[in-house]
Amino acid sequence: MPEPIYKRILLKLSGEALMGKQGLGIDPQVVNEIALELKEVKDLGVEIGVVIGGGNIFRGLSASARGMDRVTADYMGMLATVINALALQDYLERYGVQTRVLTAIKMEQLAEPFIRRRAIRHLEKGRLVIFAGGTGNPYFTTDTAAALRAIEIEADAIIKGTKVDGVYDDDPKINPNAVKFDQLSYLDVVKKRLKVMDSTAVTLCMDNHLPIIVFNLTVKENLKRLILGNSIGTKVCEEQNG
Predict the structure, then answer these.
(1) How far is the C-alpha of 196 from the C-alpha of 214, rounded, in Å?
(2) Within a 10 A sphere around the Cβ of 102, how many other Cβ atoms?
């Protein structure tokens, strides 16, 4: 069997990924499938960190657009990411995957506070680490939190799981002629305003030479194939062939 091409990854999941076809909340079947995919990759010897958004429960930016105080709304969004993290932890541990939830906001009864050295130690000991609470600061997205955590734990790549099989020049659901990119530079993403991650996250990755891979999480075993070196999704990296 081929060897994994990454030793340590940071998987970024949107909150919407957990709700399946429901309009809101958490779909237990979807969380179960994600947990199984992560277990398969974990069994290959890959160290995994995960950052989950909270958009399936509460989205701070859209709430502030409707008149709520932005800072309060963002903190509510951070709490939503903790709910998602605990749900994923529960399903992972059902399959025997040792998991730790580390939050940027202190809540000792539920999870450990985020400390960089502790996070790395958990990974080295073979535990899957879920980073919750975003960056702990308002005005920053979970994309930025994912980039920051990936850099802090010295991950080899950020793997962003979506419902689309990569990055396109237009919305493929609306435009059947949309063109998929196999590889992009960081500057391409920023200049063309492509919806990979927000500009702060992309700039952080560019400054720290951290590749971003966008792939379709809903296809069974896609994550495993990607980790084993198959050409899946879109890779965002340096100009010269990554």
Answers:
(1) 7
(2) 21
pLDDT at 21 (0 to 100): 83
Q: The domain containing residue 73 runs over which residues?
A: 8-237
Residue 223, domain member (yes or no): yes
Report how far residue 77's alpha carbon sits from residue 59's, in angstroms, rounded to the nearest whole number: 5
CA-angle at 200, arms to 197 and 206, nearest 5°: 85
Q: Tokens standing for 187? A: 């500057």
Q: Which of 228, 196, 225 is nearest to 212 (CA)?
A: 196
In this prediction, residues 28-41 reach a mean pLDDT of 96
Total domain count for the chain?
1
Position 154 scores a pLDDT of: 97
DSSP, residue by residue, 22-45: SSSS--HHHHHHHHHHHHHHHTTT
**Global confidence as pTM:** 0.93
Q: In the prediction, which pLDDT does 242 show? A: 43
The CATH number covering residue 73 comes to 3.40.1160.10
Residue 50 lies in a domain: yes
End-to-end CA distance of the chain: give it in Å, rounded: 24
CA distance 213 to 205: 11
Average pLDDT over residues 65-78: 91
Q: Whole-angstrom Cα distance, residue 145 to residue 151? A: 10
- The answer to whether residue 242 is domain-embedded is no
pLDDT of residue 81: 96
